[in-house]
Design brief:
Layout: E1 4-7, E2 10-13, E3 16-17, H1 18-25, E4 29-33, H2 34-47, E5 54-58, H3 65-73, E6 77-80, H4 83-91, E7 99-101, H5 108-116, E8 121-124, H6 127-140, E9 144-149, H7 175-183, E10 191-197, H8 208-222, E11 232-234, H9 251-265, E12 268-271, H10 275-278, E13 282-294, E14 297-302, H11 311-315, E15 321-323, H12 326-330, E16 338-341, E17 350-355, E18 364-367, E19 389-393, E20 396-401, H13 406-410
Parallel strand pairs: 4-19, 5-6, 5-12, 6-7, 7-8, 8-9, 9-10, 10-11, 11-12, 14-16
Antiparallel strand pairs: 1-2, 2-3, 4-13, 13-14, 13-18, 15-18, 16-17, 19-20
Pyridoxal-5'-phosphate binds near residues 79, 202, 237 and 238.
Length: about 425
C-alpha cells in the first residue's frame, strides 16, 4: 500500500509530480509519502486496538527528524539503539516515557545519558550490561526500569543478516542466563526488571516465527515464579513488507494470530515497527547517466549508488525499479535485460540486476521500497554527498534534508 502512482503517464507521489521534484532538488533524491507513513501506523494501531499497545517506531529504519516528529505527533513512542538516536528523539521532544532503548553494546556514556533523560526502559541484552546499568543507576540515585531481551532461539525465515532470534546470533539473553537473572534479581537494587523483550528479526512475512517466540516466552515465564511481577512484553518489530511478490501478513492478520497468545501472557504490549511503517513510504529517484554495453551485456549507469542505498549490495535485496515516465516502460525490448548500476568503484554497486527497463540518458528512475534502511544506512563512500530528502503531504512538498555539500564532507577532518 503506497501513494506512488502514475498519472497521465508520469509518476506522482500523492499529488506531486516526481519529475518536478527531481528537477527542483536534483538526484539522487529520497521522496516520502506522509499519507503512506500515517496509514501504516494507523493500521497497526487499529489492528491491536483491543490491547492498546505502546507502538515505538524504530528510529534506525529512517531517522529523519521530520519523520520522527510526524510519528510522535501521531502518538508513537520511539525505539532507539544509540546516543545519537536518543539525541534525535529529544530533539523532536519525544516524551521520555515513550522511549525504549535496545542495542547489544550500550556504552557507559550512552547509559548515563539515557538515565539522565529518564527514558521509559532499557532493553537489556546481557547480564554484564544489566550489572553496568545497575551500577550507573546507583550513582545517578535513580531506579531504572529494564526489560530483559530474551533470545528465544527461533528461526525467522528471513535474510541471515537480519535474523536476530537464533541462538548463534549476538542478540538477547539465553534462557539459562535470563533465568539466573530473575532468580538473583535482588542483587540488582537499582533496576526494576519490568518486562521481557523480543526482537527475532526483520522482514518476517509470516506469523509463525512470532508465535513460536511467544510460545517459548510463555513457557519460560511460567517456569519462573519470580517473573510474576513483570508488567511489559515488548514483541519488537520485524513485520515484513512487499518488495517484489511477497505476500506478507497484514497488520490485521498479525494481530489476529498473535492476540490470543498475547492475552494469555497478559502483559502490557510494546511494539517496535520500523520497516512496516516507512519501507514502502519512500522511493529513491535517480537519473540515468549512461546506457552502456559491454561484452553484449547491457547496463544503465545511474547517479545513485550503494552509498545512497545499500540494501541491494548488502543483502542482494530486490527493489522494484521503474521509469518515472510510464511510456518509457513500454519501449523495453524483449530479451534485453539490463543491470542498473551506480558510479561507485565496486562490482557490488548495483540497484537492480537483469531488469526489463529501457531508459535514455537524463531519464529518471524510481527505486521502490527505499523508505526504510535507505537513507539511514547511507554513507559518504567514494566521497559522495548524501542525498536530500523530501516529504510529500498531498500537494505540498517539504524539503526535510538538504544535499550535503563538499564542505560537509570534510568538516570533521584535520589536515596536519
Ligand atoms: N527493534 C529492534 C530491537 C531492532 O533491532 C529492529 C531492527 O533491527 C527493529 C525493532 C525494527 O525492525 P523492523 O524495521 O524490521 O520492524
Amino acid at each position: 500500500m503506497d501513494y506512488f502512482k502514475y498519472k497521465n503517464s508520469s509518476l506522482y507521489c500523492e499529488g506531486v509530480s516526481v519529475k518536478k521534484i527531481a528537477k527542483k532538488y536534483d538526484t539522487p533524491l529520497f521522496i516520502y509519502s506522509q499519507k503512506t507513513i500515517l496509514e501504516h501506523f494507523s493500521k497497526l494501531k487499529e489492528a491491536f486496538s483491543q490491547i492498546k499497545p505502546l507502538i515505538c517506531y524504530s528510529v534506525k529504519a529512517n531517522s529523519n527528524l521530520s519523520i520522527l516528529k510526524l510519528l510522535v505527533k501521531a502518538g508513537a513512542g520511539l525505539d532507539i539503539v544509540s546516543g545519537g538516536e536518543l539525541y534525535r528523539a529529544k530533539k523532536i521532544k519525544c516524551h521520555s516515557e515513550k522511549i525504549v532503548y535496545a542495542s547489544v553494546g550500550k556504552t557507559e556514556e550512552e547509559i548515563k545519558e539515557a538515565i539522565a533523560e529518564d527514558i521509559f526502559m532499557f532493553n537489556v541484552e546481557s547480564t554484564n550490561e544489566l550489572k553496568r546499568i545497575d551500577k550507573i543507576a546507583k550513582k545517578s540515585g535513580k531506579k531504572v526500569r529494564v526489560s530483559l531481551r530474551l533470545n528465544p532461539d527461533v528461526e525467522s525465515k528471513t535474510h541471515k543478516y537480519i535474523t536476530t532470534g537464533k541462538k548463534e546470533t549476538k542478540f538477547g539473553i539465553d534462557k539459562k542466563s535470563a533465568r539466573e537473572i530473575f532468580l538473583g534479581a535482588d542483587k540488582y537494587k537499582n533496576v526494576i526488571i519490568a518486562g521481557i523483550h523480543l526482537h527475532i528479526g526483520s522482514q518476517i512475512t509470516e506469523s509463525f516465527p512470532f508465535i513460536s517466540a511467544l510460545k517459548k516466552t510463555k513457557e519460560f515465564l511460567a517456569a519462573i515464579p519470580a517473573s510474576k511481577n513483570l508488567e511489559f512484553l515488548n514483541i519488537g518489530g520485524g513485520l515484513g513488507i512487499v518488495y517484489k511478490d511477497e505476500q506478507p501478513q497484514t497488520a490485521k492478520e498479525f494481530a489476529k494470530n498473535t492476540l490470543p497468545l498475547l492475552k494469555t501472557i497478559g502483559l502490557k504490549v510494546i511494539l517496535e515497527p520500523g520497516r512496516f511503517i516507512i519501507g514502502n513510504a519512500g522511493i529513491l529517484v535517480t537519473k540515468v547517466l549512461y546506457n552502456k554495453e559491454s561484452y553484449n551485456k547491457g547496463f544503465i549507469v545511474v547517479d545513485a549508488a550503494m552509498n545512497d542505498f545499500l540494501r541491494p549490495s548488502l543483502y542482494n535485496a530486490y527493489h522494484k525499479i521503474i521509469t518515472v515516465d510510464e511510456n518509457k516502460n513500454k519501449l523495453f525490448q524483449k530479451n534485453k535485460l539490463v543491470d542498473i548500476v551506480g558510479p561507485v568503484c565496486e562490482s557490488g554497486d548495483f540497484l537492480g540486476k537483469k531488469r526489463k527497463i529501457s531508459a535514455d540518458e537524463g531519464d529518471y528512475l524510481a527505486v521502490f521500497g527505499a523508505g526504510a534502511y535507505g537513507t539511514s544506512m547511507s554513507s559518504n563512500y567514494n566521497s559522495r554527498r548524501r542525498a536530500p530528502e523530501v516529504l510529500i503531504n498531498n500537494k505540498r512538498c517539504y524539503r526535510i534534508k538538504k544535499r550535503e555539500s563538499y564542505q560537509d564532507l570534510i568538516k570533521q577532518e584535520i589536515i596536519i
